[in-house]
Design a protein that fits this description.
The complex is a heterodimer of chains A (109) and B (114). Chain A has 109 residues and is mostly beta strands. Chain A has strands at 5-7, 10-14, 19-24, 32-37, 44-49, 55-58, 61-65, 71-76, 85-93, 96-99, 103-108. The N and C termini of chain A lie far apart (37 Å). The relative contact order of chain A is 0.33. With 114 residues, chain B is mainly beta. In chain B, the strands form two sheets. In chain B, strands 2, 4, 5, 6, 9, 10 and 11 form a seven-stranded mixed beta sheet that branches. In chain B, strands 1-3-8-7 form a four-stranded antiparallel beta sheet, with no helix packed on it. The chains are: A mainly beta (109), B mainly beta (114). The A-B interface holds A 30-31, 33, 35, 40-45, 48, 50, 88, 90, 92, 95-97, 99-102 and B 4, 31, 33, 42-43, 45, 48, 50, 58, 90, 92, 94, 99-108.
């Protein structure tokens, strides 16, 4: 059972376009995290959202935590080739982290 | 600070051989984790440790053993490698306190078993 479902699995868009990636669960999480993984490297933490309804911005990236703390979204404005990578959402369960299956994003110049 | 480091970066094993992957962190984190990442499978937890001298099984523990003799080190062992263990292995650590267990990853070890 995949506790965290991400959509879409793959996304290829033109530079300058906007996009949204979704992370959904039927379970409540105390917080959700977003990571970005570039080819040949380990995932890097981008942000943690903690409060239901919370919105956090990281330059052109906007992260939102659902009011019920069961879902989150990542919106990228004016995508650039440097945004290319695998985006993973994750949530804590006891001392462990549950990862979503990821969204592989490709930005074409 | 080096963060999380992994040794080696690449390794090729023959079926049946053994090896140990070393993970070290200099952030004084209590928790450490070993994951494997296969194409299309995402990150899967192998074993984890919530403190020195303690280990626990994750989602896919079979064929692996771990030890946490020192707080800063977490070792992953393969006693008899199988082709199904060809993968990229990531170590991560996290601090306690916030309850979020944010993961700090190493650069990975790419293992091929022939």
């Amino acid at each position: 059972t995949q506790l965290l479902e991400q959509s879409p699995q793959f996304l290829s868009i033109q530079e300058g376009e906007n996009l949204t990636v979704y992370c959904n669960s039927s379970s409540v999480f105390s917080s959700l995290q977003w990571y970005r993984q570039e080819p040949g490297e380990g995932p890097v933490l981008l942000v943690t959202v903690v409060t239901g309804g919370e919105v956090k911005k990281l330059k052109r990236l906007t992260f939102q935590f659902g009011d019920a703390r069961k879902d989150s979204s990542l919106h990228i404005t004016a995508a650039q080739p440097g945004d290319t990578g695998l985006y993973l959402c994750a949530g804590p369960r006891s001392a462990k982290i549950i990862f979503g299956s990821g969204t592989r994003l490709s930005i074409r110049p | 600070n080096a963060g999380v480091t992994q040794t080696p970066k690449f390794r090729v094993l023959k079926t049946g051989q053994s090896m140990t992957l070393l993970c070290a962190q200099d952030m004084n984190h209590e928790y450490m984790y070993w994951y494997r990442q296969d194409p299309g499978m995402g990150l899967r937890l192998i074993h984890y440790s919530v403190g020195e001298g303690t280990t626990a099984k994750g989602e896919v523990p079979d064929g692996y053993n771990v030890s946490r003799l020192k707080k800063q080190n977490f070792l992953l062992g393969l006693e008899s490698a199988a082709p199904s263990q060809t993968s990229v292995y990531f170590c991560a650590s996290s601090a306690t306190g916030t309850g979020s267990y944010e993961q700090y990853f190493g650069p990975g070890t790419r293992l091929t078993v022939t």
